[in-house]
Amino acid sequence: MKTLIVYASVSHGNTEKVAKAIAEVLGADIMEAKAVDPLIVRNYDLIGFGSGIFYGKFHAGLLKLVGSLPTSKSRAFVFSTSGFGVTDPHAKLWKVLEPKGFTKGGDFACKAWDTFAPFKLVGGINKGRPDEDDLNKAREFAKGLRSEPGP
């Protein structure tokens, strides 16, 4: 199964760490969203999309790329890092991916060091995250993606 992981990691490298942990398990190609030609997705069976969460949304560069993707028959997964480690913003990204033909492979989110706005005043929250435990959880998530979904 040919796999691609597309990510945007702009503040502290949090999302890049998670993307690399998942790619390690899947033997995936890994690319920053700003470097991806939308047509390249046709060459992959499984595609992961991830970024940090900003104001409850994925990074603008990742959203722009996803909006420009052609229809696909690939399976996809979504991952994110944020100060709170929630998957709530994932639903908005799936609303763009599913009409383009992507089938849902899963979601992963973890807490990450966040120094945005008010958090900066106190040195940020979740310093040191994602930590090795978070990265191991990302690897376990990836192991579940290796098999094709059942009928």
Task: Write a structural description.
With 151 residues, this protein is α/β, with parallel strands linked by helices. It has a single domain (3-145), classed as Rossmann fold. The chain has helices at residues 14-26, 60-68, 90-97, 132-145; strands at 3-8, 29-32, 46-54, 57-58, 75-82, 103-111. Strands 1, 2, 3, 4, 5 and 6 form a 6-stranded mixed β-sheet that branches. Strand 3 and strand 4 form a beta hairpin. Helix 1 (14-26) crosses helix 4. The longest helix has 14 residues, at 132-145. The radius of gyration is 15 Å and the shape is globular. The mean pLDDT is 89.
Provide the fold topology.
Layout: E1 3-8, H1 14-26, E2 29-32, E3 46-54, E4 57-58, H2 60-68, E5 75-82, H3 90-97, E6 103-111, H4 132-145
Parallel strand pairs: 1-2, 1-3, 3-5, 5-6
Antiparallel strand pairs: 3-4
